[in-house]
Every structure is written in structure tokens, then in C-alpha cells.
Amino acid sequence: MCDHRQMASTYSLGEIDHVQALSDDIGNLYQNEDCSDIVLVVGNETFAAHKVILASRCEYFRALLFGGMSESLPGVRTIELKDEKPLPFSILLSYIYTGRVRLSSLQVTAQLDLLGMANKYGFQTLEASISDHLKTSLTKENVCNIYDMASIYNLDKLSHQCLLYMDRYAGDILKSPGFLEMSKNSVVEVFKRSSFCVDEIKIFEAARDWFAKNNGDPNSGDVIRQVRFSLIRRDDLLRKVRPSGLVDPDEVLDAIDRQDNSKNADLNYRGMLIPMENIATSKYGATVIKGEMRTALLDGDNSNYDLDRGFTRHGIDDDDCDGIVVELARPAIINAINILLWDKDTRSYAYYVDVSMDAKDWIRVVDHRKYLCRSWQRLHFNPRVVKYIKVVGTHNTVNRVFHVIALEAMYSTVPFTLKEGLIMPSCNVATEAYSAFVIEGVARTRNSLINGDLKSYDWDSGYTCHQLGSGAIVVQLAQPFIVDSMKLLLWDCDDRTYSYTVEVSVDNSKWTIITDKSNLPCRSWQTIRFEARPVTFVRIIGTKNSANEVFHLVHFECPCERVTEQPKQEAKLSSSSSPNTHSIPPAPANTSNDLNNSSDSNMSCMLRDTAPPISPTSQHAIPKHQVDVRHMETLVKMSASNRHSQPTQGTDEDEEIWADLEDD
């Protein structure tokens, strides 16, 4: 073949890339009888082909044409391919020569035929591409046929997508003609899913119709057994199920007995399943049926709230308190609930969460009555079918009212681990993103200890501290977690060492020591491991500093997840430099010098005189930390005011303390 085309190459001198031309030339051989050496007969049609191209593109044809079979004998010019349809085979043959198929121009039936041939002839890439296209082409009319094919060829991702689609439109699927054409195994797989949510009597009627359409398949008992008869009303059991003759009368009586004598929560309910989408919204028909100021809870506004508005509440001291109750429009399978507690100050709450199908028989899925919690609560539990969600507050560290800003309910596909009913996280939850909070300690910027910045710290900023012998650094996690490790980064810009202890608590009152390094010299990264236990509060108490009288902590994480960082390079000073002439960079742009701009400014301040001095080993060692004597009493007052077990709003005295520090 002679090529007279002009080809412009965009490649550098010495490189030639004419792959497109080669592809076009091979594609032109499709149905070209001039160079053909084999004819494929499919039905009443013939296709001229080339052995070498078929063999190079397909292992099936390689074995057929060159594997010693009768079709590979010399002189064989025609091969009949039985059980194939001409149209889909012509598309497959075109794909073999060109690598292209325009699926959008094909009917779904042709796509399914092509899918079957791609599977049979081993074109895995084509099979995956058709499967991906079919995921986006599902309708109520075709999903049953597509699911049947996906099940036959073990296309798990396509099968899963079909099942989710059928779950969402269960009632319509049962009425579609495609349902009656489904294989027995496919019907069983659909009916056995708790997420295939429709009235159970409709499932029975669909099973009955399928049985009749398939001429009383003797194996249809597997289909009937997927019907959950205890969910069918007694009247329907007696008037529709029993007369059908498809169910043993004893099974009908057993279903009635379960209805009368079992707890409602023990019945095997069905519920809709919509992964990773909040269904406690007006879009899905959810409503708040108990609680005060009900409109705020499900309005989707998680930002505009204050002391007077934007929340739903109930009194904690109310007798026979029903709490805050949300009713979903339909039963739903959920395993996660997110709750935003009122968090405009440092208060904490305790609460529990119950779920139910009838608002009478309640099952407790979350019990945080003995824990102090704040802000966003990310709650997980084993999947359950739920119609009602009840949240009951049992404690508020400030008053006797329980306030909830928002509630979300969903089925989460994110993996999680539960132990003792609490989440055992695999990532660091001592972060602002997880609503953790530094409730005690002195820092230039709020929550710098947990903001994830491991590099921006020096002599003047980027750390949280407390005076040795007075106060501590305390971090509150948003909710109780089961943890077994922590990691600290001690200030390490020189060669000083620190000693410290770490304590944990779930209520900010009773503390347990998990590590005691009060007599050990420590520096830079510290990894702490201990037996897994519930943790809400972490208190870090510095006991020694080889350079001065202040304990400095740069970073905290719980549980630890990062590879230990290398210590920051020691700050070097020339022997001629003065200890008071360090180069101090300006504070970050987002650092606020006005503590009164924050509603809880007593948790964070700019303490200009607590920058770590030079190491004692330096020529210009300063044996004592340079804190103005006037500040010492202030620091003590500050630490004492922060040691209350129950956080409260700042007082006028607190404001005077911080103003004093700022003025100096």
C-alpha cells in the first residue's frame, strides 16, 4: 500500500509519529474483500476478514485460526459462527479493526448483545466501557434487563448500580414488563435486599405474577421465600396471601404470631437507601414533630444562629421529656447521624439518640450521657431501618436547656470502626475540621495547636504555652472517641528539653494519667501509645523546661497518624549577637491582636513576653525566662480562671486580665 498523504508532525526533529495514519489504514481493511483471507458467516450474512488481524486482537480467534483446530487447517476459507446476531457482530468486527464504537447510536438491546459478545470473545476493555455507559443509561424500562446481563457476566459495579436504581424506584420496577422477564436468581437478589423498599403486599403480588409468567417454575419457592410476611397487614394475609395457594397456611399464622408477640424493632423492616445523602430534609419530606422552635432544625442553615434564634431546643428538667423528634417521610436505612450543638461559647452538652419505626418502641443507637460534647457530632452505628429519630439532652454546662442547630441523617459508605459504641478513628480528630477546641493554654492565635501547621513556628509564634507550676494546655475533642495514641511536637528551635505529663478525661472532672514523663528530658516529636480508651479531654502539663519556666507545645494530634517529622533545625546565634536582638518575623496575616473581637477571647491571646529565650547552652544563656514581674500574678490569675471543670462565658474580670497583658 502506497501512502501519498502529507503528514505534519508536531514532534521534535528525529521523531516520527504516524500512529493515526496506521490506525486509519488498518480500519480501511474492515470488510475489504481484496485482501481478505477468511470469511465469517453469521446468520445469513458474511464478513470478509483477515486472520492475522483477528488473531492479534483476540485470543479467541488466535486459538481458533492458529491453534490446531479444524478451522486452522490449510484451505479453510469460511468459518460459521453460530449463536451470534449479525448486527452486534458487525459492530464487534468494526471495533476489532478500528477500536471505535459509537454506543450512543445503538439501542439498549444492541448494547447488551455487544456486551455479551465482548465478554465471550475476551474484550475486557470494551466490556468495561459498555458497562460504564450503561450505568448512565438506566431507566425504569431497561434496568431489569441490564441487571440480568450484568449478573450473568459478573459485572459487579454495573450490578450494584442497577440495584441502587431499582431500590430508588422499587414500586415502578415491580410494574415494569422487564421485571417479569428477569431470571429467578435476579428476582431473589432484588427481593432479599432490605433497601428494596415498597409495601410488602406489593412484593408478594409481584412474586405471584412472576410465578404465573414463568409457568409455575418449580424453583420459584426461592422467590416466594424472600417475601417478609410479618410486614403484611393481617387483612391482606388472610384475603390475598392465603388464598393464593403459594404459601403454607402455617407460614401465614406464624407471620400473624410475630406481629402480635414480637417487639416492633425486631421485625425485619425494609427502608429506602440513598448513600451519602442527607434524608432528614424537607426535600425528602422529613419534619420535626417534637421540640420547641422546630423550623430551625432541618432548614439547612448551619451558620446563622445566636443566643435567640437558629436552633431547636427542649428543657432538660422537663418531666417525661420527649426531647427533639424528627419523623422521616419513609422508612430509611441509615448508619450515620450528624448533629450540630449550639457552640457560640465554650459550653458542652450530654445527650443520647434513639430511633424507632413506630415512635413507641425505641432503640438507643448513641449514648453520650456521661460525656461532655460540643459543636458537630459525627455519630455512627450499625445500619438500621428508621422512621423516627429522637435526640434527648441530659446536661448543659451553662443552663438547663438543650440546643440543636442542625440534624442530618444518612447512610454513609465511609468505613468506620465502633468499640464500646464509640467511634475508633483512623485519622487525627484533634483538628478544627472535627470541631476540636483548645480550652486552656496561651497562644498568639486561637487553636494554633491543632491547625495542622507544622512549620510556621519560631521564637515568637506558632506555639501554645503555659507557666510551669500553674495551669495546663487542655484540648477538648468534639465528642468521645476510642483512641490509643497521641503525638506532640515540643518547641525545638534550639536544643532545650522539656518534661511533661498527659492526662485524659471524658467529663473534664475525673482525669487519668496516660503517660508520665515528668522526670525525663524530652524534645521535639513525642509519640504516646496506651491502651485504647474513651477520650474527650486531653490535659498536657509541662513540669520542666531546661531553658526557662514556660512549657511550649507546637502541635497536637489524636490519634497520631503522621510519620514523625524531623526536628526543626536548631536556631543558631553568632557569639557576637545579643540575646535580645533575635530576628522576629511579623505575625501571620490572619492573627488578630484584638482579643475583644472574640466571644471567648480568654482561650487565646498574644502574650508578647513568652517567646522562648536562647538555649542555656548558648554563650548568651538566660537562666530565667524573661517574663516581666508584673505579668506573673496575671498569668496565675489567668490559669486559675481556666481550670474550671465546666466552661462558662468570659467575665469582666477575664477581660481585665487580657487587657492587662495586651497593654504591657
Overview of this protein structure:
It is a single chain. With about 675 residues, the chain is of the alpha+beta class. It folds into 3 domains: about 20-195, Potassium Channel Kv1.1, Chain A; about 280-415, Galactose-binding domain-like (Jelly Rolls, Sandwich), CATH 2.60.120.260; about 435-575 and about 590-664, Galactose-binding domain-like (Jelly Rolls). The chain is built from 17 helices and 20 strands. Strands 13, 14, 15, 16, 17, 18, 19 and 20 form an 8-stranded antiparallel β-sheet that branches. Strands 4, 5, 6, 7, 8, 9 and 10 form a 7-stranded antiparallel β-sheet that branches. The chain has a 3-stranded mixed β-sheet with strand order 2-1-3. It starts with 18 loop residues before the first helix and ends with a helix.
> How is the main sheet built?
8 strands, antiparallel
Strand content: 25-35%
Q: What class, by secondary structure content?
A: alpha+beta
CATH topology of the largest domain: Jelly Rolls
| Low-confidence segments | 563-567, 569-664
* Global outline: flat
Number of domains: 3
Mean pLDDT figure: 84
Radius of gyration: 35 Å
Tell me the number of strands: 20
Summarize this entry quickly.
This protein has 664 residues and is an alpha+beta fold. It is 26% helix and 26% strand.
Provide the fold topology:
Blueprint: H1 19-27, E1 38-42, E2 45-49, H2 51-57, H3 59-66, E3 78-80, H4 86-98, H5 108-120, H6 124-135, H7 143-152, H8 156-168, H9 170-175, H10 177-180, H11 184-191, H12 200-213, H13 221-224, H14 234-244, H15 249-261, E4 287-290, E5 312-315, E6 324-341, E7 349-356, E8 362-373, E9 376-396, E10 401-410, E11 418-419, E12 422-423, E13 437-440, E14 442-443, E15 464-467, E16 473-490, E17 498-505, E18 512-522, E19 525-545, E20 550-557, H16 629-641, H17 652-663
Parallel strand pairs: 1-3
Antiparallel strand pairs: 1-2, 4-6, 5-10, 6-9, 6-10, 7-8, 7-9, 11-12, 13-16, 14-15, 15-20, 16-19, 16-20, 17-18, 17-19
Helix pairs in contact: 2-3, 4-5, 5-6, 6-8, 7-8, 16-17
